[in-house]
Write a structure and sequence with these properties.
Distance between the termini: 35 Å
Number of strands: 18
Order of helices and strands: EHEHEHHEHEHEEHEEEEEEEEHEEEHH
Largest sheet: 8 strands, mixed
Helix content: 25-40%
Strand content: 25-35%
Bound molecules: flavin-adenine dinucleotide
Structural class: alpha/beta
Low-confidence stretches: none
Shape: globular
Length: about 375
């Protein structure tokens, strides 16, 4: 392989693969360095919900703008990746039901339905009977809840496969089984600038621009003035086999979510644990999920478990991603820390990072996602 290129992307999960594909479409020569074989990569562990309303709407305006822009792009993104790769990605736009079991939860959700941004996401409050008319599998204990019409979902494992295949098909050089140990710097320039990467094998690769997209492992890449503030937040999940039609919508409660897949599986997730890189899943985590799922849809308790797993969300101190140029290292782009929403945020992240690498303005404002917001911690 050539040992110089326009761009090196460290990490080939959904974020890295989507960025590499988008950059290649804009004419850049891109190499993705993907470690391969790590336990718990987030893009494969996720549930694939595309849910700006429940996650960030009404809480964080800058984040909502980012997430809503990505949701808008998702149908075309999913269709194009499927066409380019030949991998069906099961984009479903059936919406989500967010359930209340107590008067307190009902009051909270009714308030959300009345908020100004709710109409944009097709949100309405429905009583328990109306919800059970839509989804007969729901428990008689459900008091009511929100129907969020614009929420969608995608088969995230298929989507990663599609993104990797599409990127490689477009001409991205894919270095599988190689790990970036450090960013190499030209410290004589001011500010210092990245010159490429040092692989764990000792090989150096040179590039004009380097992108860190290594999920929760991004904080372990050496060579920077300070380690990136990204940590693993473990999520456990399981899948059960459905006997036949069971749920159309994604179901969410305060304790769990249920995500139907077209292949007859129902995903039940997810725990949210500060467990470092501890390997999962655990009996305690799965038991919590099973009980919460049975509260929403009692028959789920007797369905056969086909799989259980755990993955690591790339968390940041404020829950927002890190997007854009590193404030103290020139030529280094950050695309990490997507925490609970990296599947949703893949299309907009790819556009933002590819725009910056080609000296064009990003499609949405990104100041709120700069590493500079943690400056006292990261300028060593
Ligand atoms: C249980 C769970 C449920 C989730 N549900 C949802 C959801 O419903 N909707 C949603 O939008 N998001 C969800 N998320 C979050 C989402 O999965 C992540 O935000 C997103 O997948 C992050 O993608 P990524 O490519 O940055 O990270 P990853 O998918 O973890 O990919 C990082 C890649 O970098 C590679 N790598 C690591 N270190 C190096 C290195 N030094 N050199 C080279 N390669 C390296 C790894 O091998 C890996 O392939 C969920 C996450 C979890 C864990």
């Amino acid at each position: 392989m050539a040992d110089t290129t326009d761009v090196i992307v460290a990490g080939g999960g959904l974020i890295g693969a989507s960025i590499a594909r988008e950059m290649r479409r804009r004419g850049l020569h891109v190499t993705v360095v993907e470690a391969g074989g790590l336990h718990g990569t987030a893009s494969r562990a996720a549930a694939g919900m595309l849910s700006p309303f429940s996650e960030v709407a009404g809480i964080d305006p800058a984040f909502e703008t980012l997430a809503a822009a990505s949701l808008d792009r998702f149908p075309a993104f999913a269709r194009e990746l499927a066409e380019e790769s030949g991998v069906p990605v099961e984009y479903r736009s059936a919406g989500k039901l967010q359930l209340a079991f107590t008067e307190g939860e009902a009051a909270h959700l009714r308030g959300r339905a009345d908020a100004g941004d709710a109409a944009r996401y097709g949100v309405e409050w429905l009583a328990g009977d109306a919800l059970r008319a839509l989804e007969p599998a729901l428990s008689s204990r459900v008091l009511g809840g929100l129907r969020i019409d614009r929420d969608a979902s995608v088969d995230n494992r298929a989507l990663v496969d599609a993104a990797v295949t599409a990127a490689r098909g477009a001409g991205v050089h894919w270095l599988e089984g190689a790990r970036v140990a450090a960013i190499t710097l030209d410290s004589a320039s001011n500010p210092s600038r990245s010159t490429g990467v040092l692989l764990e094998s000792g090989t150096r690769l040179a590039a004009e621009v380097v992108v860190i997209a290594a999920g929760c492992w991004s904080g372990r890449i050496a060579g920077l003035p300070a380690a990136l503030p990204v940590r693993p937040v473990r999520g456990q999940m399981m899948a059960v086999r459905l006997p036949g039609p069971f749920l159309e919508h994604v179901i969410m409660t305060a304790q769990c979510y249920l995500v139907p897949r077209g292949d007859g599986r129902l995903l039940i997730g997810a725990t949210l644990e500060e467990a470092g890189f501890a390997v999962g899943p655990t009996p305690g985590g799965l038991a919590t999920l099973a009980l919460a799922a049975a509260e929403a849809a009692p028959r789920s308790a007797s369905l056969p478990i086909t799989e259980s797993w755990a993955g690591y969300r790339p968390g940041t101190p404020d829950g927002r991603p890190l997007l854009g140029w590193h404030p103290h290292v020139a030529n280094l782009l950050l695309a990490t820390g997507h925490y609970r929403n990296g599947i949703l945020l893949a299309p907009i992240t790819a556009e933002i990072i590819a725009a910056l690498a080609t000296d064009t303005p990003p499609p949405v404002p990104i100041d709120a996602f700069s590493l500079a917001r943690f400056d006292q911690d990261t300028h060593g």
